[in-house]
Predict the 3D structure of the following.
Amino acid sequence: MRIALVGIGKIALDQHVPALADSPDWDLAATVSRSGSVPGVDAFTDIDAMLKAHPDVGTVSLCLPPVPRFDAAVQVLRAGRHLMLEKPPGATLSEVHVLADLARAQGVTIFASWHSRMAHGVAAAKAWLAGKTVHKGRIIWREDIRKWHPGQDWILAAGGMGVFDPGINALSILTEILPAPVHLRTAELDVPANRQAPIAARLNLSQDITADLDFRQEGPQTWDIELQTDAGHLALRMGGNLLEVDGTRVDGQDSIMGEYPALYARMAGLVRDGASDLDLAPMVLVADAFTLGQRTTVDPFDF
Ligand code: NAP
């Protein structure tokens, strides 16, 4: 199946292009980007021009930041093409509902991808937790914004979600593996004086689960989820890729490189089945944190 990529930036080049190059399902036929391109692939700067020139492209994958993504998504759906969205699926929940309705009306697939749910240890963690009761838990998601998002001012602007851009990955895993639904109780948001979105956040969730999200971590990076249950202790480390039970590694791989191949395999299956996958649970928790969160102004941040 022929696919186009829109927004040739960091994640497109780091993950989407390699995943598509090795995919048995997809042929990357076109790109749309104001400045980026992929060698050997037909490049456009305008999405409508690409859609007109490439009736063979049945699927479009959007790798843009969340704020500019909606208009591009509408163009893709109106052209009757299947749509795959990077996480988070939009800047607001209401716009994603609009996209879901439009996809249904057009009879095409929409896939809100959550790459961390494809991490190597997540399915095994979900299976191990099934039928157990979670008593307590903690998420520690601390990474270096300068390493993973160099110069990306959009991420600390309104709609960029700040530290929830990576933090939503943890919440996407949590909402996938927990045997019972979780909701937000309180949130504290640290917003730099010269920015609009939080650079750090602390959440209290039901089931006595806390989350410590921070974009200012230098040195070793931490992407851990730990859950205490009635039948033992589960830890997912390396962003969901390593699974430990009671301190012993039981599953997973020490690599993040399986996530995007798995996402594109899932998208291929959805298109073949005429199905869609649009789970907004992680984004609801983030929206609730912005609704309930107590804001503190912290030191200005510059890249
Ligand atoms: P990025 O490199 O800053 O942006 C991606 C591309 O989007 C840019 O190359 C740019 O392409 C286009 N773009 C940026 N702002 C735009 C605007 N206002 N209007 C139109 N196009 C615009 O961002 P990224 O890191 O790839 O992240 C993109 C998405 O992937 C985000 O939702 C992020 O959460 C997700 N993601 C990122 C990472 C990561 O590690 N960085 C990991 C997983 C998921 P042109 O200027 O060439 O048009």
